[in-house]
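Title: Prediction job returns without error message
Component: structure pipeline
Severity: low
Priority: P3
Assignee: unassigned

Description:
Job completed but the reporter wants confirmation the result is attached to the right record. Sequence as submitted:
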Amino acid sequence: MALKLNSENLHLGLSNIKHRKKGQNYNFLSDDTLFLKNDLKKTKNFQLFGGIPFEDIYNLLGLVIVSFFVRLYNIDYPESIVFEESHFGKSVSQYIKRSFFLDYDPPLVRLLFAFVGFLFGIDNDWDEEIYNELGIPYVALRFMSGIMGVLIIPIAYLTIKSAGFSRIAAFLVSSLLIFENGLITQGRLILHGSSFLTFTAFTFLMWVKFYTEEKRPFKLWWWVWMALTGVGLGLTISASLEGFFTMVFIGLLAIKYLWDLLSDLRTSFTQIAKNIFANTLCLIIIPVILYIIFFFIHIAILKYGGADELYISPEFRKTLNEYSMDDTPIDVAYDSVITLRHVVTGGYLHSHQIPYPRSQDDDTHHQVSLLMHVGDDEDNFWTIRTVKFAESPENTKESQELQESKELQESLDWIYDGALIHLEHFKTERSLHSNVTEAPISDGEFQKEVSARLFEGFLDTTDLWNVEIAESDKSDPESSERLRAINTKFRLYNHETRCYLFSHFIKLPAWGSDEIEVTCATNANYQNSLWYIETNSHPDLPEDAEMVNYKRIGFFRKFYETIVAMWEYRNERYSYASTSRSPLSWLFLNDGVSFWEDKYEERQIYLFGNPFVWYTSTLAVFGFVAAKLGIMILEKRRISNFSTAKAKHFESWAGILFTGWLLHYLPYLLGYGPPHLHYYFPSLYFAILLIGIGFDLLTERLTYKNRIIIAAIFLVASIYVFTLFSPITYGGPWTRSECNRVKLLNSWKYNCDLYDKNYIEEKEEIIEIDYENSPGSYYTKSPAFLTQVVEAETTYTTQGMELW
């Protein structure tokens, strides 16, 4: 279905609501509705910072209290790590230790977790699965996430009220959000989704407040709400890369706002220019500044080296306190002892005295790999040798031809572009060699194995490498003509096997010490075949030889590198993500995500929505699309006119919420990111808000009492369904029959076989004893139970309970 943004026809609900006459009051709902007025002095009483009616204050307090209980109930359970809590926990530890690390999202939420961790004295590594064994106050971190989830409730309430809809609709929407199981599960754990959704909701509320001030441009509250919208955007994009979807959403609303001004002939070009400036300042510059500030804090904290430091440039790494490299001679000559570093991965060309598995009985070829470790490992050093051939029955003719084409290089002769060299491993005195056999890991005939070969006084042509200078430092002109440490980037080409020395991020198995694979690739990617010399020494260099080191870089270079590394890290993570589900399944809650299971306690936590809330929200989305198409057809056929202020009000705000839903959902439908259910939550939020507008529209002609009854029915239904699925939300006890009873779709993958047939009030630990003499024998640890020895597959009953 093609949806077209058209300011005259569809608008996607972004049509303006400037159909109000001065002093006119549209009382189109019940008496509790926030009426649309042009009397802005009266509507000022509804500003967020004071002036909220007592009825709303009571509602908000009640909703927050209930939400607080629902979100934080039994939040210390389970005591083991759930889903990606270890990932965020490790980030907290690294912030506390100030060790450099990379992540797949901007740092704001992790900084908040780290701040809480700092306040509660977290200084442990997250190496275990049980929090008690770690000694970590994990409840404090979960509590922060839970509080963020609670804040969504009053934000949603104020959003609906500020948009001009009824108090009942606002209360209904907030209640549906309270009892949405998926949001509860996400908001009880050490994850970033709850904070991100709160920032998204806050941003939209601030824009709604700003939009209600459109008739008072450049007044105090007009500036306040627009600036706070920019602050919300800054928080949102600093919490998750998905926050840029929110920025696009608010940007489209701002463009529509400016387009309406342009179409209003009463608005001067000076006013339009001032509006453009204000929107640019508040909705672009402020978010970008906040985004940079949070990265500045992130980079300033991480002042020591860490596990991910090899994924940043050496110049960046040099700014870390624990890393230092002495100046090295810049001139590289034959017989120089060097360390050779790969440009893309940052690893060091490395060889150790272990053969490849295919040649365990043959010590001729040692493994060659990249060592992703900074330090003076003696296996990283290589000597650049000139080409010398000894007579050999196997290669006499080839040796003579190459010897005639190359003069013997003297000591301290520089190595120029096109030079023919061989690299000799300093420790083992073996030659870097390109085999004709396939690479150990990488598939395909274009990747050949590289090894360190014992050459016994003579060289094979597969030991020879041509130097091809590829890049140089503009401040060092000589680095484009000959090898210069650090400043020259070059490729090594093997004529015999017709391939380039190559590496990537693919690791060798355990037999290769999990180091990075090095191959010789015939169709080598340019960047992955670039190398440079990091350290260099030669016994004949003078004491006053020219020295070189990495250049120091400023914050913005480090900021840029961090952003690039974040994207690469994210893409690598998504490349391994499951894609078995389509985002289309999100609309109908076809599946969830398993977060945690404990087979012994027979409990699980499964990310799964409230089907009643979920399906109602999906119905609201499709209902809006159907209604909009119906209105367009009726107006086109001139059967009916929906141009009244009341109709435009509903249409405008419903369309805005639909646009918010679509812009947060469409990227995943187009292939962005893995189709995991929690990525739908921002869209779900806008769809639930849309329920509130639909409620007001469908019940506007009913009495206040009847509207209360209908809202109560919705609320009771949502609470009932919430309780049905609460065992997998909180990790509570359940029975197999109860689990299967609510498993309406086969695609719902929560594990009902995990549960016993009946509730067990006290779980007894069963320990195996004397397995060799009595296989399958067990006894119960508790003295309250009879100790009984049984065979492994025998069923026995102790105090009325079946134990297997």
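Comment from assignee: result matches the submitted record. Confidence is low (pLDDT under 50) at residues 1-50, 389-410, 761-804.
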